[in-house]
Amino acid sequence: PAETEPASTLKLHQSADQVEDGVSQAEKRHWLRLMVREGWPVDRIALAAGVGVRSVYAGVLEVCERLGRGGLDLAPWNPVVEVLFPIGQFTPSSRCVHARSIPAGRAAYCPICHASGLDDLPELKIDPRTTPKPEPKEPEPKAPEPKKDETRRERRAKARKEARR
Q: What residues contact 97, with CB distance under 8 A and at least 6 apart?
């Protein structure tokens, strides 16, 4: 995978298509691939390639402009999904439009039962190796227990006195 590649493999094909900034078009395309397909942040790509963050931004922008609008294929990652709304009003008591389960591979989503035909796609599965761990919850501070010999009036007076300080 791309994560284990040493920095030297990020320097690709530096001969014929070299430009004035010293970075080949193939390397810039590789940066774009790392960003889009692998989800690498720009600073990580810059560190691995041994260039500045601005160079990565400029290179990726240049490749996107050269490829044009249709050159970057993101269809498997950003599918167009048909939303199956019920006929009439959409209320919490609405019934699902689909009679059975949505067939696997169909780009449809039911907002009532939250079913989709794309649920089984491997691209949409959560990878536990790359999922960040949840932040630990801070324990709630415990209220100090009142002393047995204090009355409620005394405790409230003491709290008001401390609040004035």
A: 84, 85, 86, 87, 110, 112
